[in-house]
Design a protein that fits this description.
Serine Threonine Protein Phosphatase 5, Tetratricopeptide repeat; 19 helices; four-stranded antiparallel sheet; 8 strands; two-stranded parallel ribbon; disordered N terminus; 3 domains
Length: 408
């Protein structure tokens, strides 16, 4: 499973001032909400307060460690908290993208995706009376896919306020904030950032939960999470896109179109919204309009995510391992850290008889896996490969059987 890279902290005040932008105007979400189409939620939809709430276990941890935290780092609670968050020290955190956890869940599991870990850190900072500032980091988006749903993941981090008066625990967000990030500093170098408020972070959490419910086929639950995200922050356009997909899956094409057009009205170059709108228009029998949108999407994104990966999978199925290797390498060249691409390349290398390179690609798949399930799968493949140095017909057939299903 992907280990947390070293926590990054730096002074970013000047960059923040230069890159912060005004959010789009309110989009009045009530006009695209249709509660009457869905059953009540099967589980509670968390509020902002519940998402960021510190559990009694978290509060007890902070209380038990406060003295140590205060003594560490010359009394700078911010730096002491960063040290405690380091995976090799107090909390032993791991990255796990299988589920978006709230603060208490992430603390209990000692794992989460970047949003969950940011929320958990904010909750712990609040217990220490340290103000925080959330930020969107403009790094290249990463994509993942599960069955016929594709997910785009952005990145967020947070800054902890500088101590103004160590004796009174007074803090100030005025200059040299300590930025906490759960990816490598190399990945952040030169990246622009934009300040986000608490409502937007909460809306991101709710939208993630909506997408996860949608992926599980729980359309009613997905609707209520997306609805909550829009009401939490009407400026968060990603939630309108999610809502549009939910409506379309639910068979409500007219309101799906209305929701997606809310996005394209303020973000006319939004590839996810344009792509989903083209699908809805095609479902409605408006093929010419859909085709026009397809052409626009192609002009904005000539090679969509997973384009070369899909070509690689097709080549594997045709036992054209050289072509498969070339396609997987092209996909990795634009998305270096996605585990399925490395697994696909491992299969192609194995098919070509390059067992050493197949082993290296399996190791990369393990290092970049985002769930315990995928980590276990790739580790098992690597163990099997290590135990079968010499290829025999039966062994070859076993691994090549995976060629039709490179992902977990």
């Amino acid at each position: 499973m992907n280990k947390l890279r070293a926590l990054t902290f730096a002074a970013l005040a000047a960059l923040l001032a230069g890159c912060a932008t005004a959010p789009p105007p309110s989009l009045q979400p009530q006009a695209v909400l249709h509660d009457e189409l869905f059953q009540p939620p099967g589980e509670p939809v968390e509020t902002e307060a519940q998402i960021f709430a510190a559990s009694p276990t978290m509060q007890r941890w902070v209380k038990d460690h406060y003295g140590q935290l205060h003594r560490d780092q010359n009394g700078d609670l911010r730096r002491a908290l960063v040290v405690a968050l380091d995976r090799d020290n107090e909390l032993h955190l791991e990255y796990d993208a299988s589920y978006t956890r709230d603060a208490a869940e992430a603390f209990d599991a000692r794992s989460g995706n970047c949003l969950s870990l940011v929320i958990m850190t904010a909750a712990m900072a609040r217990e220490l009376a340290i103000p925080v500032q959330f930020q969107k980091v403009y790094v290249e988006e990463s994509w993942s896919r599960d069955r016929n749903l594709m997910f785009s993941a952005g990145h967020v981090n947070l800054s902890l306020a500088r101590p103004h008066d160590a004796l009174t625990r007074s803090y100030s967000l005025t200059g040299d904030e300590l930025t906490v990030d759960f990816i490598s500093a190399d990945d952040l170098r030169g990246a622009h950032v934009r300040e986000l408020d608490l409502q937007t972070i909460a809306a991101m959490f709710m939208n993630n939960r909506a997408a996860e419910a949608l992926d599980a086929g729980r359309l009613d639950q997905a609707y209520w999470w997306a609805r909550a995200a829009l009401l939490e922050d009407p400026r968060y356009t990603a939630a309108y896109n999610t809502l549009g997909v939910i409506y379309r899956r639910h068979g409500n094409l007219a309101v799906a179109e209305a929701s997606l057009r809310r996005v394209t009205a303020v973000e006319p170059d939004s590839v996810p919204a344009l792509s989903n709108l083209a699908i809805v228009l095609r479902d409605e029998g408006r093929s010419a309009e859909a085709q026009a949108l397809d052409l626009r999407v192609h002009s904005l994104q000539p090679y969509p995510p997973f384009h070369f990966f899909d070509l690689g999978v097709a080549a594997l199925k045709a036992h054209d391992y050289q072509a498969a290797r070339e396609m997987f390498k092209r996909e990795i060249a634009r998305e270096a850290y996605y585990h399925e691409f490395h697994f696909g390349l491992a299969l192609a290398d194995y098919g070509l008889g390059d067992f050493d390179e197949a082993r290296e690609q399996l190791k990369l798949a393990i290092d970049n896996s985002t769930t315990r399930k995928s980590h276990a799968l790739y580790a098992a493949k690597l163990d099997w490969l290590n135990a079968h140095q010499a290829a025999d017909p039966l062994a070859t057939a076993r691994l090549r059987h995976e060629a039709g299903q490179p992902g977990p």
